User: Fold this.
Amino acid sequence: MVLFQDITYGQWGLVLWTPDQVLIRHKEKLALHSEEFRPGDLIIGEFLGDTDLLVIRADPNATDFGSILIALPIDKRPDWYNPARSLNDFLEKFLESKGEKFWEPQYN
Assistant:
């Protein structure tokens, strides 16, 4: 599923992967950027036009279980965004912002 895709240039939008795609794409992305990911990170989508990845914390024993991260593959993990406590919260905010990256400082 693609949300807010820029149909003119293809430089904007969020691709939420299907469960089958998650199984494949998660492994592919980890192979390229494994050093910053932790056990319990599950990559579930990607943003068109850049290399940002949508990650959900899937370790049920972790205090941040279910929270959302925006992985910036060229940055260290402490620089990643943590825009929402759940996928539902993230999607609500993303829809309210009409696809804008509400977690980035220039948006606020």
